Amino acid sequence: RRHFTVLAVESSADDTCAAIVTSSRQILSNVVIKQHDLHEGFGGIHPMIAIEAHQRNMPIAVKRALGEAKLDVSKDIDGIAFTRGPGIGGCLSVGSNAAKTLAAALNLPIVGVHHMQAHALTPLLTSWPNPPKFPFLTLLISGGHTLLLLATSLTSFRILATTPDESIGRTFDKVSRMLELKWSNLGPGAALEQFCAQTWESDLPKIPALPWPMRGKLGFSYASFHSYVERYISSRGGIQELDMATKLALARTFQTAAVAHLEEKLVLAYEWCVTQNIEVCDVVVSGGVASNQFLRGRLQECLIKLNPVNPISLCFPPPHLCTDNAVMIAWASMHRFLARDYDDYTVNLRSKWNI
Ligand code: KG4
Ligand code: ZN
After folding, report:
1. What is the free-text note on the cofactor (predicted)?
2. Protein residues with CB under 6 Å of any ligand 1 atom
């Protein structure tokens, strides 16, 4: 018979997603309904508002995914996948109920997917026919995650570093807002990158070095980066008192330190792999922050230094598949559907779920 076709839904955080993907790697549709404007001003995701938005948007997302793929759900879909966790319980339950009810009504098998595993497996879909080879390292850097993973097979992953406080993406956002940069449709993080990239002919003032949290340890911490910038600005009497050159020096010092923090952890992770006799040939960098060109250049240089003879290759999935989406959920479920390793309709959610 033809390839296997999966309809997947994802609703673990603030995006309502539905997608259709086949076992021959065709992405037939990819619908993402964002709700960040609803959470503006809460300093994070407001769970009740997110749940209500998922409830409103899930039927729309599923209908659109089927429409864009021009498929008839009763004939063309072979399995239903959903995000089982980790995530906000109430948000996950919207996707899970949608998936289970569809599957039960259509008599289709279901598979519940681990959200972080799905992120980690994305390059196997997007970098075809030259996907990263196991074992590979994944740096997942976005508004929701700051994570360094080692993927050793389709089903085995290890978190090497994560953060107890703020994500790198939110830190870029906060610093950009403190500097009062204009961001129009770029978003605050990308605006900060663009601001730093401007040419500046004269000398810039010296800014004292940023703190280096968790030096030498496999762990991220970005909270002190933004409090550093906040303190610096208030010590100078507020943002209105800073001239352009000082603002630029501050922004560049922050961006360089934020990226140096990632580089240090990547090197530590690589060295740890060497001590474990794990031979890593590929590093995948994904998430919204991975679109930063300065970061890409620095990581590339860092990997060449690590292994000048046989440089580790660096892979960036396309931005729209780095952020939360249901394509990655469909893809991560595929090997289980093909092995007929389905979940029961009674499968529970795992709001907290080790990878
Ligand atoms: O993965 P993503 O699109 O979505 C969520 O995590 O929800 O990541 C968004 C984050 C935001 O914090 C945004 O400011 C940041 O990625 N970002 C950037 C750049 N583009 C997006 N940060 C630094 N440099 C960029 N060019
Ligand atoms: Zn995610």
Report:
1. Binds 1 divalent metal cation per subunit.
2. 142-144, 169-170, 172-173, 187-190, 193, 287-289, 291-292, 322-323
Instruction: Check: CB of residue 22 under 8 Å from CB of residue 31.
Output: no
Q: Which atom of ligand 1 is nearest to the CA of 170?
A: 12
Determine phi and psi for 24, rounding to 5 degrees: -95, 25
Atom of ligand 1 minimally distant from the CA of 189:
14
- For residue 319, how many C-alpha atoms fall within 13 Å in the half-sphere facing its CB? 8
Pocket test residue of 11, 17, 116, 142 for ligand 1, highest count of atoms within 8 A of CB = 142
**Domains located in the chain, CATH noted:** 5-122+321-338 (3.30.420.40), 131-316 (3.30.420.40)
Distance CA 181, CA 187 (A): 10
Model confidence pLDDT, tens digit, residues 181-239: 987 778 899 999 999 999 999 999 999 999 899 999 999 999 999 999 999 999 999 99
Backbone angles phi, psi at 347, to 5 degrees: -55, 135
Cα(225)–Cα(210) distance, integer angstroms = 7
The residues, ordered by sequence, that sit 6+ positions from 168 with a Cβ below 8 Å of its Cβ are: 141, 142, 146, 220, 222, 258, 262, 289
What's the gap in Å between 93 CA and the centre of ligand 2? Answer: 16
What is the value of pTM for the model shown? Answer: 0.91
Chain length of the chain: 355
**CB contact at 8 A, 250 and 232:** yes
Complete DSSP assignment for 267-323: HHHHHHHHHTT----EEEEESGGGG-HHHHHHHHHHHHHH-SSSPPEEE---HHHHS
